[in-house]
Amino acid sequence: MPRYATLRLFQAFVVLIGVSLILFLLLHVIIPGDPVRIQLGGRADAAARQALSQELGLDKPLYQQYFSYMGRLMKGDLGTSYRYKEPVATLLFEALPYTFKLAALAVIIELFLGVLAVLISYLSKRSFVDVFLTVATTFLISVPVFWLAMLLQYWLGLKWHILPVSGAEGLASLILPALTLALVSTAVIVRILRASLKETAGSDYVLLARAKGLSPAQVLLKHQLKNAFIPTLTYIGMDFGALMTGAVATEIVFNFPGVGLLMYHAVLERDIPVILSGVLVLVAIYIAVNLIVDFLYGFLNPIVREQL
Questions:
Q1: More confident residue, 91 or 62
Q2: Could you give the residue ranges of the DSSP H alpha helices within 75-171?
């Protein structure tokens, strides 16, 4: 286990270095616009532009800018936002709690809805409910997240006035964006859990439980669900990491002040320090969550634990 942990940490370090290098180069090639011109406007004179360029270090060669950034990063300095004139760390730490609460609530909703749907579907095989859940999950997997967000926003917010359609004032404002994220993931959980239950249906312990006279519901709840849930738990952990790093479209639609909205505005304003440090922090969070999931999976699965 310690050797595995060391290897994974080394891999994470290599990934972060690679991401920082690739992203740093791409930001100066893909994203159009001059940060100096964006901040000063098109009417600023050449002296003012040159002074700001020197202040930001943009007058140096690209490789010097990169090594300078990495040197500051090693000291915990994520840079200063071009747009907000504030440390990037401050902006991220203000936005991360919103995204964390959104992702956590989405995971809770998708776990509850997913397990409930599978239990109902599995205990009512080949019924109308089973067919309906199959069609619904297929639809939710294929639908774009932003379209689903606007659909829920219209019906539950604007049409029926049940929930707030934007902002982050209280728990009520979390429900719509969290439900949007959860519905798509719920469909995936249903698919994974149903497939796992089918695989375990012919296992010896399941056949033995049936031979003892247990009802289908008792066999499912006491024996099958526990073992079939392990792959689902892995997906939930990975999905939480993905939600922490990829809820951009949902946060934009609901004007939710999380990391996704912060990164969206940073791209529009060509705020390179926010984009670069923000992506690195999100990648680090995703790697950390996946590492935790790996160890948790090994703890729940004895076969995997012996291989670590």
A1: 91
A2: 88-123, 128-142, 145-152
| Domains, the chain | 2-74 (no CATH), 94-302 (1.10.3720.10)
32-83 confidence digits (pLDDT tens): 566 776 667 666 677 877 887 787 777 788 888 888 888 988 888 998 888 8
Burial of 300 (0-12, 13-18, 19+ CB in 10 A): middle
Q: For 149-156, which contacts have Cβ atoms below 8 Å and span 24 or more sequence positions?
A: 149/176, 149/177, 149/180, 149/249, 149/250, 149/253, 149/254, 150/253, 152/176, 152/179, 152/180, 153/253, 153/254
Phi (first) and psi of residue 125, to 5 degrees: -65, 140
pLDDT (mean) for 109-119: 90
Alpha-carbon 111 to chain mean position: 15
In a 13 Å sphere around the CA of 191, the CA atoms on its Cβ side amount to 14
Instruction: Determine the Cα angle at 97 with ends 270 and 176, to 5°.
Output: 90
User: What is each CA distance from 80 to 64, 69, 91, 272, in whole angstroms?
Assistant: 18, 11, 10, 9
pLDDT value at position 304? Answer: 55
The answer on pLDDT for 98 being more than 60 is: yes
